[in-house]
Amino acid sequence: MKKSRIFLLIAILFMLIVFYVVYDMSRKTKFPKGRPGAETEQNKSVKDSVEQKDPMEVEIRR
User: Fold this and answer.
1) CA 12 to CA 6: how far, in whole Å?
2) Per-residue pLDDT at 24
3) Regions of the chain short of the pLDDT cut 50
């Protein structure tokens, strides 16, 4: 009986630590598409290069 109480206490403590870490990470992280001006230069260049070409002429590179 004493071992099950110790196990339960450790399990609850572990879950509290995990929940705290997840909450802390979610507070500090923002969804990149939600911010204005979130497009990076790399995304812009890829987007522009695809838009300038005719969709039928885009070649697939392997």
Assistant:
1) 10
2) 93
3) none
* 3-class SS of residue 24: helix
Query: Which amino acid makes up residue 18?
Result: V
CA distance 8 to 5: 5
State the amino acid at position 35 in one-letter form: R
7/27 Cα distance (integer angstroms)? 30
Question: Sign of the C-alpha dihedral, residues 36, 38, 41, 45?
Answer: negative
* pTM exceeding the 0.70 threshold for the entire prediction: no
Cα distance between residue 9 and residue 1, in whole Å = 13
53: left (phi over 0), alpha (psi -120 to 50) or beta: beta
